[in-house]
Amino acid sequence: MKKITAFILAFILILSCTVTASASNPTSYYKYIIENGEVTLTYAHTSKDVLNIPARIEGYPVTKIKSDVFFNLFRLGNFEAINIPASVTCIETPVIFDIVGVKAINVDKNNPAYSSKDGVLFNKDKTTIIFYPNEKGDSVYKLPEGVVRIEDYAFRYADTKEIVLPESLEEIGENAFFKAGYLEKLHLPKNVRLIGNDAFVLNYNLSKVTVDKENPYFSDLNGVLYNKDKTAILYYPVNKEGESYEIPETVTTIGFNAFQWLAPLTSVKLPEGLRKIDDKGLSGSSKLFIELPENLEYIGNNALESCGFTDLVVPKNVREIGDGAFRHCNSLKTITLPEGISYIGEETFAYAYSLQKITIPHGVTEIRDGAFMSCASLDEVVIPGTVTKIGEKVFDYCKEKIVIYGFSGSASEAVADYYGYEFISIDHTYTANVKGDANLDGKLNIRDSTLIQKQLVKVAVLGDTAQNQGDFDENQKLNIRDATAIQKYIARKT
After folding, report:
1. Helix and strand tally (H, E) in the chain?
2. For the structural domain made of 242-426, what CATH number should be given?
3. CB under 8 Å, gap of 24 or more: what pairs does 155-161 form?
4. The pLDDT value given to residue 481
5. I need a labelling partner for 375 at 20 to 30 A (CA). Which of 104, 105, 130, 466 fits?
6. Is the dihedral of CA 409, 411, 412, 418 positive or negative?
């Protein structure tokens, strides 16, 4: 019986506990977990201007602070400080100090894992800055020499206009300067070798980033950040002047979120040698005018989200188009996709409200969840027989009436049946490359002529490959002359 009771008590101690008040700090309360004789804080709040993290709760030492403990610690006025005792040896990173008005984070000098200097939180030996209080009030903040890393979100919402980085700095974490809205300029010293994704995201006043010429990893060109040999553009400052920008011909890659919702840009000229647009690389502006170069091979997740395309031809060399690539492209009416892609990603065309027609190219095997969700103008979709899997919510919130063209008994017919859409069977398969072979069965015969005529009177719908193959006279147009020429050719042969 004693063993059972002890087990129950131990189990209860592991569960989340709440202290609503104490004699020493009646206006603060915490949520926490007690395990193995130590306390982990999961939530903290106070109505005072200073939050004192207790060294002990219920007689147990407070040793760990979860990353989101302070997430909801909002104050309408200034929040003076958070004081961390010597007992805390683990603060989960990234630390989410989402507090309005915090001026200082102070650490007990006897703490073995952390330290503070002028209200800024560091690790013990001050080689890593963990958090800069978002209303510390410095117009210019100079990081101490010896700092090697800026932790993820370290300058989240920081109110300083300039941050001077030390020569010792090597790493800048993800979202390091997240929404540091007052930051105007930044200089990267020669030893910086790593910059995390979205390090400069939503820095509305940042107009230029410069790089020490001796840095072997990064460079700048007129305040725009590149890798050293300028084969990749990494960050275009949000507040940089000008409505147009020409990317140098050396660039083959547009980096992750490089244009940060494109600032005031309406025109970006892409180089002919561009091969890759990384995730979110050019997303964000319905006014953006760009032409995709012929050598492009890869379009990442959300890479062109919200861009202002109307009639777009995706280059033939593109082999992968990521999830959400054309999401919210509200002006997009038509798009021609290349053969060679194997899937249509999740929400690739979602919320493209003006999209009217699309032909899925031969070779695509899967259309993933929500691919055309909320395409409110969509009328016709041609789906090849190679598509064997169609995900959920593909046509949710679209028109009540859409015509699906595909193969009888295929996934396309099943999805048409699910949504109650009209289904029209297209009976042809792709097997060979024969001039005039409109039905793509590898042969030239009267069926090809008949199918071309059906296409012309809109009884059938041919994809780009079928139309190209059916162009018997090779004048770059599919018309009645092709159908007639095929008939004459067959007559002569027989």
Report:
1. 5, 37
2. 3.80.10.10
3. 155/180, 155/183, 156/96, 156/97, 156/98, 156/131, 156/180, 157/98, 157/181, 158/132, 158/134, 158/182, 158/183, 159/134, 159/135, 160/132, 160/136, 161/205
4. 86
5. 466
6. positive
Report phi then psi at 233, rounded to 5: -90, 130
pLDDT block averages, 10 residues each, the chain of length 494: 38 37 55 94 83 93 88 61 95 70 91 97 97 90 97 92 97 94 95 96 93 98 97 94 93 94 80 97 81 96 91 93 95 91 97 94 94 96 92 96 91 96 72 70 78 78 77 85 80 61
The confidence score (pLDDT) of residue 358 equals 93
Second-level CATH architecture of 431-494: Orthogonal Bundle (1.10)
Residue 147 backbone zone (phi > 0: left; psi -120 to 50: alpha; other: beta):
beta
Distance from chain centroid for Cα 162: 27
Query: At the top level of CATH, which class does the domain 141-218 belong to?
Result: alpha beta
141-218 and 242-426: identical CATH topology = yes
CA distance 268 to 249: 13
Burial status of residue 419 (CB atoms within 10 A of its CB: 0-12, 13-18, 19 or more)? middle
Q: In what order do the strands lie in the sheet with 50-52?
A: 50-52, 79-84, 102-107
Q: Determine the pLDDT at residue 140.
A: 96
Which residues face 84 on adjacent strands? 107
Helices 480-493 and 446-456 cross at an angle (nearest 10°) of 170
The identity of residue 471, as a single letter, is D
CA distances from 328 to 167, 303, 340, 347, 352 (A): 42, 12, 24, 9, 5
C-alpha to C-alpha distance for 490 and 447, rounded to whole angstroms? 11
Gap between the Cα atoms of 377 and 402, Å rounded? 9
In the chain, domain spans: 1-136, 141-218, 242-426, 431-494
Cα-to-chain-centroid distance, residue 416:
31
Q: Which pLDDT score, from 0 to 100, does residue 427 have? A: 58
Q: What are phi and psi of 117, to 5 degrees?
A: -140, 120
Please report how many Cα atoms fall inside a 13 Å half-sphere around the Cα of residue 162, on the Cβ side. 9
The closest alpha carbon to 363, from 429, 439, 313, 412, belongs to 429
* Cα 80 from chain centroid (whole Å): 35
CA atoms within 13 A on the CB side of 318: 26
Tell me how far apart the alpha carbons of residues 343 and 340 are, in angstroms, rounded to a whole number: 9
134-to-15, 43, 140, 474 alpha-carbon distances in Å? 33, 20, 13, 65
